[in-house]
Amino acid sequence: MKIQKRRPTALAALLLTATFAFAGCGSDDGGDGGSADGGSGGGDLSITMLPKNLGNAYFDTSTDGAERAADELSAEFEEVGPDTASPDAQVSYINTVAQQGKDALILSANDPDALCDAIDEARSADVKVVTFDADTNPDCRDLFINQATAEGIAAKQLELISEQIGGEGEIAILSASANATNQNAWIEMMETELADNPDYAGIELVDTVYGDDEDQKSFDQTEALLQNHPDLKGIISPTTVGIAAAARYLSDSEYKGKVALTGLGTPNQMREYVDNGTVTAFALWNPGDLGYLATYAAAALVNGDISGEEGDSFDAGDLGSFEVGADGVVLLGEPFTFDKDNIADFDF
Amino acid sequence: MSRTDIEREPETEVSTGEALLVEPSRLSPTRRAVTTVLRSRELSIFLVLVAVVVLATTKNNGFLFSSDGWRNFLLNPSILLLLAVGQAVVIITRNVDLSVGSTMALTAYLTGRLFVDQPNLPIIVVILACLALGAVLGLVNGVLVAYGNVPALVITLGTLYVYRGIMLTWAGSDRINAGDMPRDFLSLGTQTVLGVPVLTIVALVVLALVGYYLHTARGGRELYAIGSDPDAAVLYGLPVRRRLLAAFVLSGALAGLAGVLYTARYGTVSSSVGSGIELQAVAAAVIGGIAIFGGSGTVWGAAIGAFLLVTINRALPSLGIEDFWQRAVVGVLILGAIVLDRVLARRQARKLAESRDHA
C-alpha cells in the first residue's frame, strides 16, 4: 500500500491520495461486483452510494454511516460499486444513476479526471453529486466531504504524542517513503509546530526514518531507531503500515510500555497492540462519520437548503452543523482518536 | 612447513596450499582440515562479519549486548538464511531460483489465512501445509527447468511474476494482522531457548542438515558435479533431472518455511511481502562464496553471507551511514565477491596447470 503523489499541487489531491492509501483501496479486493442493496426508506429522496470498490472494510464502514443517515432522513438508499478500484469501472454505475433519475450520488472517485464526463452527464440530469474520501476536480462535483486537513492531522499526532510522553523528551518519526508527498507535508507541519508552539518546548525531534511502507523495512527501522536513540520517549508513524510494524516490534521488545507510539492507523491493524498495552491511542478519521456527513450534505443539496456555495451551512444530524468552505469542500473535523475504550466499535 | 606434517615424503617441495589443491591426501587430516578452513572463502566472509559486529558494538553497546540487540542479531537473518540455503543448493547446480520471494509471500499469506479460517488448527499442521505448498511451487520450477530445457533464470523470472500475480489475486488489498493469529504462534517469532531464538534454531538445524548432505551424501556431491559441467554429468549418467527437481523442491520448501517464519516474526502479511528478497538471497549466496556458474561453494558460506547482509543493514544506521548508502555497500560487497571469485578461479586454474606441467 504505497502512498503516491497523483497530482502535484492541490491540497484536495493531497488528501485524496492520503485516503486512497489509508483505505487500502488501491487494489483488487475480491469483493462481489454489482449491486449491494442497503436499507431503504420510503421517502422521496433517493440516494446512491458508489465507493471505490465493494468488499472493502473501510468503505463498508462509510456505507454503514451513510445508511444510518439515510434512515434518519427516511431516504431511499442504495450502494453500488465495482469489485476493483479502477476509474473506468465506476463510469457505468454513474451512467446508471443518471438514467434512473436518482436525486443524489455520493462517490469516492477512483480518478480525479476520468469520471468527470460521466458526472457532468449525471448532473445535467439533475443528480446532485457529492464526493467523499477521494475527490474529483472541484468543477465537476457539487460538494467534497473532506475527512481531515493536513494541519489537523499534524496537530493531532503531536497532541497525542505529547500527551503520551508527558510533554517532554526525544521523539522520532517513522514515515513512509522519503518522497511520499502527504507524509512529508505532515512532517514539515509537525516540525514547524514543534519549533513554534511553547507547549512542545520540551519535545525534541531527533530523527526521521523511512520504512517505505513495507512491513519488514518499517519493522527494521523501528529497531534501528530504538538502538540509536537510547533516550527515545516516543515514535510518531503517520502511515498505517509503519505504525503497525512499529507496534509489532515494540510489543515484544524491552521497550514495550517505555516508548510511546502513535500516528495514523486502522483499528483492525492496531487492535492487538492497543489491547496488549503497546499503544495507548492513535488517530485516523472515522469513515462512518464521513459517510453519514456525505449523506446529510447530499440531502441538503437535493432539498435546496444549500447550493454548494462557500459559506452555506447545513445540519448533519448527530454531527451538528457544518459549513461549506472554499471550492465546495466540507471538512469533517479533526482526526478521530482510537483508544482502548472505543476500538472495539470499529471494524475496518 | 615441518616435514612431520607430511605423511608421505614428497618428491619435490610443494606448498601446503598447492598440496591441498593437487593432492590433498598428502597432508595429515588435521593439517588438511586446518588449511581448508584457513584458506576458505567462508572464513574471510566470517571475518568481515566479525569486523562489522565489533565496529557496531564499539559504537553502540546495545548492538550486541542488550537483550533486544542479541536477539535481533540472531533472529533477523534467520528468514534470509533459509532462502539463501535453498538458493545456494540451486545455484550450485548452475541454476537460479528467482521465485522464492513470491513463494514466500504465498506461504506467508497461507499461514495467516489458515489461522483466520481455522483458528484451532495446530501450528505444526500450518507449518506442514506451507512446506507442502512451497515444495509444489518449487516442483513447478523444477519440472519446467529440467524438462523444458529453458534456462532457470527465465523460468523462475516467469514464475516470480506468476506466483506474485496469484498472491495479488488471492490477497488483494486484504491484510493479515497480528490480531488475527493465535498468540502462541506469534510468540514463536520472538521466543528464545537458552538465549537463542526459536526461529534461529530452526534455520540452523535446516542449515546443518543441508550442509551435511551436500558435503557427504552422494546426491549432494552429484549436485556439484552437475553444476561443474551439466553436459558431462548427463554423459556420465548422473540422474540430472531428478537432482534438479530435488534442488528446486528444496528451495521451494525452504521458501515455504521462510513464509511461516516471516508471519511469526512480523505478524502482518500484505500482498507485497517478500518482494525483492529473492535478490537478497542470491546476493547472500554469492557473497558467501557460491560461484554463480555453479559447482562450487558451500551452504555454510551462503548462511554467513545472509548473516552479513542482514547485520550490515542493521549496523549501518548505528554507524550513522545514510539509508541510501546502505544499498551501495551491499552492491560493493557483491561486486567484491564476484571479482574475488574470478581471481581465485584463475589462480587455481593456473596453479593446476603448473602442477600438471611439473609432473
From TrEMBL, chain A:
Subcellular location per the Swiss-Prot or TrEMBL entry: Cell envelope
Domain Periplasmic binding protein stretches: 47-304
Signal peptide: 1-23
Stored PROSITE patterns: PROKAR_LIPOPROTEIN
A single Gene Ontology CC term: outer membrane-bounded periplasmic space
UniProt keyword list: Signal
A GO BP annotation: rhamnose transmembrane transport
GO MF annotation list: carbohydrate binding
Highest taxon of the lineage: Bacteria
NCBIfam families in UniProt: RhaS
Listed name of the protein: Rhamnose transport system substrate-binding protein
Organism this protein belongs to: Nocardioides cavernae
From TrEMBL, chain B:
InterPro entries: ABC_transp_permease
Protein location: Cell membrane
Keyword tRNA processing among UniProt keywords: no
An annotated GO cellular component: plasma membrane
Keyword line: Cell inner membrane, Cell membrane, Membrane, Transmembrane, Transmembrane helix, Transport
Annotated TM spans: 43-61, 73-92, 123-147, 153-172, 193-214, 244-264, 285-312
Membrane topology recorded in Swiss-Prot or TrEMBL: Multi-pass membrane protein
MF (Gene Ontology): transmembrane transporter activity
Domain of life, source organism: Bacteria
Role description: Part of the ABC transporter complex LsrABCD involved in autoinducer 2 (AI-2) import. Probably responsible for the translocation of the substrate across the membrane.
Subunit details: The complex is composed of two ATP-binding proteins (LsrA), two transmembrane proteins (LsrC and LsrD) and a solute-binding protein (LsrB).
Record-given protein name: Autoinducer 2 import system permease protein LsrC
Natural source organism: Nocardioides cavernae
